[in-house]
From TrEMBL, chains A, B:
Entry superkingdom: Archaea
Family: Belongs to the TrpB family.
Cofactor(s) needed for function: pyridoxal 5'-phosphate
Modified residues (N6-(pyridoxal phosphate)lysine): 111
Native organism: Methanoplanus limicola DSM 2279
Subunit composition and interactions: Tetramer of two alpha and two beta chains.
Assigned EC number: 4.2.1.20
Descriptive protein name: Tryptophan synthase beta chain
Gene: trpB
Gene Ontology cellular-component terms listed: cytoplasm
HAMAP family recorded: Trp_synth_beta (MF_00133)
CDD domains, per the entry: Trp-synth_B
């Protein structure tokens, strides 16, 4: 029985899996807020590479991964699948626990998988510069890493609160040649407007998105890139689930439960979609798919399935998704990557159609599981990824009660090397749990855009 | 041609390689400063586990790695050997560059290799607590990781300067259940004595060693552990070189140059000793072995081969080694792990006997190579490990001139996730190079202990 199931670099998947080909019902189309008509390819051309737009709208089941992309992926893929034997022993569970580890990528999470692909297509099209926003810093780091490799310039608008809190993330991006500024900046109309009203603001992801989109629209040969939510981002992450299935085959295991945390939905989609494919096709109907979110930002568990904007300012297309309302600003929990009011439209539709169970946890119980996991398996997880650990631990404890011998698989989407101040807050008892902010959410949900399709 | 050569977990070496069995001349024995006689096993028993003392003095060529140790090693071993293709292209070199990457261990460096083994033998002997010192924090983190796995308590005296500079390292150790205090503390005689004289001292490795040794001697069931210099530490690191040789075989390559940075000497020993074995046996006389050190602390390149203390206070055994004098305090360069006045006695003897070439570099040129490497290969290296990169780059540029097609292999001993403030200093032009501190070294070398053997 092996602790770590590894694949050879030849076994990096040769194609991405596009779940749009298999879904019994596709989500309703995104809407252009200017025309209130469904978004077409031409609406996206000013800021996205053509091939990414094609992938966004494609219903082809498998899409070839270019050799150039696979070659860069070999810097850290295939990623290992681990058996968490010490954790099993600690929990005295009858279950088996496996985890797929995405934290070995140079920027430290799964985000690199899509950054490489997105930058490749932009480079191929002659784009010389990419602008983006970053909250926690994982996505900005990943884009910096990928642009450096392909020789593009990179401009990152980092939410000022995070920028001040996580100086190492900024230096990491600069080491990879990117420029990183605290948002709001005085370099965009959007930023200046906010600064005029509130010079001391800590910023928000919504503002940073507006700045990056404006930057891309206004600069020569510059595109925009997004690290989650969109269909093509979920697509690029399916290397995770495809590798996991191959590794489970080698281990002669069948997954009974597949778990991942869900913020915008991309690491969840990455591991889950290939398993949902097998559910839909009838190859394996019994795998339970679980999305885990913070109680302080319970998009799938307490949100509405409705049309809403992707950003606070209402500049992005209006998407059909689970949402807490685009005006909802989640409490300042330590999982920055899970503080998003919406959810990937594909993940949302699959949840609405009953393919996904969603659960939520408070941050103290999540950190408790994270510290226990670090003690058993060595790896200190990102707070986001620790949500998946907590759900896996709970499933394993259920099995201990029932005596079931389930195989539980979760996605450990990143390491926590840059999140240690959160661990300090937890270890010193200073981490606060937030009750479900029902009032705030009710208020925010009252303000959804009206769409008739 | 593969980018990443991986081994299966069954291929973790089953034995450590003990170079003491093969050396034409062994180093002169360490001397007990109390008796001025060679150190015997009984001198070490109060603070080291029996099996580690046996390994320290053994001349058996191969020593079995216990299954329990190999099982923990599977959490991150075998480590990958990478071909640095993008770096080669960048340098337009005719050489091939490979690197062995030890930064995937949970604490982030090769130090975990010996921490696991040391804690295992201590646990087996019923020891319940281990005390140690740490400078940069890599060793303290590794011991915290290993003690947590085996259920021992861990006490780390961290040099106060580092403690204040790298708060994340301390939190990492605490997450793994260790206690970590800034040294000097008021918990030991040694610490109190220093604080009385100088309450605001930033501490030093020498003081921290004294505190940890005193702690181990005074506490019930507590031993001491050291992360470099000693024979058994070098022994445990030989998994690195053994794996590398197997991986080169798979790649159908023969190493012409093997490079590692050298502070206390353990990561260098780890990759180099199996290659030196083949030099000594005549199997392969042509491999050049290169140790790289900072110009600010040039132990092998400017030091004396002489008997000296391992610590500043003169409490440790007196060892025959290259030394800058135990009173030498190196300038505050950003490679904390290379700021040591001495060098492992085995590495020293091999250098004295002509098996090793030593070179030194200033820190700005080292960081230049580190940033170039990060841009090509993704990984942001620890400043210590970046010394090896700089030497590899220079070798590759030599080949570009001569047209030679050498195969260059270096050990990338750790990642730089907790060293990003050094990168910031470099990127902002604030990093200072120190001239070879000839006066300081001359002064310090005037104060060596007198030993007659």
């Amino acid at each position: 029985m092996k602790s770590r199931i590894i694949l050879d670099e030849d076994e990096i998947p040769k194609q991405w899996y596009n779940i749009q080909a298999d879904m019994p019902n596709l989500p309703k189309p995104p809407i252009n807020p200017a025309t209130m008509k469904p978004v077409g390819p031409d609406d996206l051309k000013p800021i996205f590479a053509d091939e990414l737009i094609r992938q966004e709208m494609s219903t082809k089941k498998y899409i070839d991964i270019p050799d150039e992309v696979r070659e860069i992926l070999t810097q850290y893929r295939p990623s290992p699948l681990y058996r968490a034997k010490r954790l099993e022993e600690k929990l005295k569970t009858t279950a088996k626990i496996y985890f797929k580890y995405e934290g070995l990528s140079p920027p430290g999470s799964h985000k690199a998988n899509t950054a490489i692909a997105q930058v490749y297509y932009n480079a191929k099209q002659g784009i010389e510069r990419i602008a983006t926003e970053t909250g926690a810093g994982q996505w900005g780091s990943s884009l910096a890493y990928a642009t450096q490799i392909f020789g593009l310039e990179c401009m990152v608008y980092m939410v000022r609160g995070s920028y001040d809190q996580k100086p190492y993330r900024k230096i990491m991006m600069e080491t990879w040649g990117a420029q990183c500024y605290p948002s709001p900046t005085d370099m965009t109309d959007a930023g200046r407007a906010v600064l005029k009203k509130n010079p001391d603001t800590a910023g928000s992801l919504g503002i940073a998105i507006s700045e990056a989109v404006e930057d891309a629209a206004k600069h020569e040969n510059t595109n925009y890139a997004l690290g989650s939510v969109l269909n093509h981002v979920c697509l690029h992450q399916t290397v995770i689930g495809q590798e996991t299935q191959k590794q489970l085959e080698i281990a002669e295991e069948k997954a009974d439960v597949v778990i991942a945390c869900a913020g915008g939905g991309s690491n969840f989609a990455g591991i889950a979609f290939p398993f949902i494919r097998d559910q839909i096709s009838g190859k394996d109907r019994d795998t339970e798919i679980v999305a885990v979110e913070p109680s302080a930002c319970p998009t799938l568990t307490k949100g509405l399935y409705a049309y809403d904007f992707g950003d606070v300012a209402g500049l992005t297309p209006i998407m059909m998704m689970y949402t807490l309302g685009h005006a909802f600003i989640p409490p300042a929990i330590h999982s920055g990557g899970l503080r998003y009011h919406g959810m990937a439209p594909l993940v949302s539709k699959l949840h609405a159609d009953g393919y996904i169970n969603a659960v939520s946890y408070h941050q103290n119980e999540v950190f408790e599981s994270a510290v226990m996991f670090a003690g058993c398996e060595g790896i200190i997880p990102a707070p986001e990824s620790a949500h998946a650990i907590k759900a896996a631990v709970d499933k394993a404890l259920e099995c201990r009660k029932t005596g079931e011998e389930k195989t539980i698989v979760f996605n450990l989407s990143g390491h926590g090397h840059f999140d240690l101040s959160s661990y300090q807050a937890f270890l010193s008892g200073k981490l606060q749990d937030y009750e479900y902010p029902a009032d705030l959410i009710r208020e925010s949900l009252a303000d959804l855009p009206k769409v008739e399709v």
